Amino acid sequence: ELSCGTLVVDLFVKDCPKACLNFLKLAKLKYYNNNLIFLVEKNFLIQSGDPTGTGKGGRSIFGILNEKSIGNGEKEAQNFKRGSQSPKHAPSMKTVGYFEDEIRPDIELNKKGLLCMANTGPNTNTSQFFVTLRGDDLEYLNGKHTIFGEVVEGLETLDTLGEVFVDEKHRPYQDVRILHTFVLDDPFPDPDGLIAPDKSPETLRPGEETVEERIAYGEDIDKKDEGRTKEEIEESIRKEQAKSRAEVLEMMGDLPDAEIKPPENVLFVCKLNPITMDEDLELIFSRFGEIKECEIIRDRETGESLQYAFIEFTTEEQSQEAYFKMNNVVVDDRRIKVDFSQSVAKIWNKWSMSKRAPGTIKPIPKMHDSKEGNKNTPHSYTTRSDTSNRERFPNSDRHNHRSERRSHRDRHEKHRHRDRDRHEKHRNRDKDRGRDHRRDRYRSRSRSRERHR
């Protein structure tokens, strides 16, 4: 029984009798009670069986029985702090109780929930064990660890264990402990000197545990979740994640403020027909109220519609009514999608312009007709004001500029193709001349040979 669920395991008593006997007798002695699951590697394994909680301790049942037979168990138990004790007080090989591996070639690490002995090398098994959390890509561990059992009930508990939050050493931030061990069937007789306790230990931590205390397994980590439903908790988590992402964007300079919110009177319309014009869309949506601005976003170079637009109403009620009545409506043979805009581009532009110091605005040259002035006349400049593109460039002028660019591009393409044809013609002519020259030279040589004969 774990602090996060229950596991039922079957042991391979015929294939690995020594490892199974060790595990069963330690469970009878309540040796595993309150032990930490000190190692959790997601989608790999969990490890426990060390009363010190460090991964460097643990003794087998054979070492415990040898310790009792030697008669110095109490003294060594007090000095048993693996990794920190001096060689003088270190437990001996007999009291640790290493026993040999029981490797079976027909038993492989190929499934989730296999129970294996943890070791530090060949034939160094004690009390530590691990359970696999996956069944693939574990072939490299075959032949190195004794596989002596498998989980038959409680695989969902393993899934829960695999998702706990851990530190850089893979120890859970909130303690996960083995609370109780129950032996349902023991085919091995008890060895001499084994006396099982009448009840489980009352302490929440083993006496040999040396790691720092963390959040207890029964302690509520987040008391603010008390009395809230699962949906409310998930909604709260989503809001916190959105806030953290906004703070990151603010630090990167992509948002003026993490608390900024998009305007609620602006609608986002997508899946438009490319032939739909701004005036058409504004006329359709104007029946819901006064429209401050309606703009279909177009390509900068070609002027073609990108098939989405932004519509700004004067009030939020008008935008809400337009949203409920215009979503999935067919416009110009296209079923459009309408949603509330999440863009803060205009707010960002106003904020960035307001943050600029006076006199630092980049001047824009003012265009003038070459007929009215000579080339020696100095250019006049004007400052960039905080006005929209629509106010600075009306739709008609903007389309005129685009048509001029297109005509210029067409003329350029025409000249380029004409030059290419001209070069191709000259190249072919040169080839023909070279061919004629070689033919004439060959004929002259033939005539000279005839005269010589």
Labels describing this entry:
453 residues; alpha+beta; Cyclophilin; Alpha-Beta Plaits; six-stranded antiparallel beta sheet; four-stranded antiparallel beta sheet; 14 strands
Commentary on this structure:
This protein is α+β, with helices and mostly antiparallel strands and 453 residues long. It has eleven helices and 14 strands. A hairpin with a 6-residue loop joins strand 8 and strand 9. It is flat. GO terms for molecular function: peptidyl-prolyl cis-trans isomerase activity; RNA binding. Its EC number is 5.2.1.8.
Detail the topology: elements first, then pairings:
Elements: E1 8-11, H1 17-28, E2 39-41, E3 45-48, H2 61-70, H3 73-79, H4 93-96, E4 114-117, E5 129-132, E6 147-153, H5 155-162, H6 230-252, E7 266-270, H7 278-285, E8 291-298, E9 305-313, H8 316-326, E10 330-331, E11 334-335, E12 337-340, H9 345-355, E13 363-365, E14 381-383, H10 389-392, H11 395-452
Antiparallel strand pairs: 1-6, 2-3, 3-5, 4-5, 4-6, 7-9, 7-12, 8-9, 10-11, 13-14
Indicate the radius of gyration in whole angstroms: 41 Å
Global structural class? alpha+beta
Largest sheet: 6 strands, antiparallel
Q: How would you name the CATH homologous superfamily of the domain at 8-162? A: Cyclophilin-like
> How many strands in all?
14
Strand order of the largest sheet: 1-6-4-5-3-2
- The name of the CATH architecture of the domain at 8-162 is Beta Barrel
Distance between the termini: 117 Å
Named CATH topology of the domain at 8-162: Cyclophilin
Shape: flat
Sequence stretches where pLDDT stays below 50 over 5 or more residues: 72-90, 355-401
Mean pLDDT: 78
**With helices defined by DSSP (H or I, 4 residues minimum), what is the helix count?**
11
In percent, how much strand structure appears in the residues?
5-15%
Fraction of helical residues? 25-40%
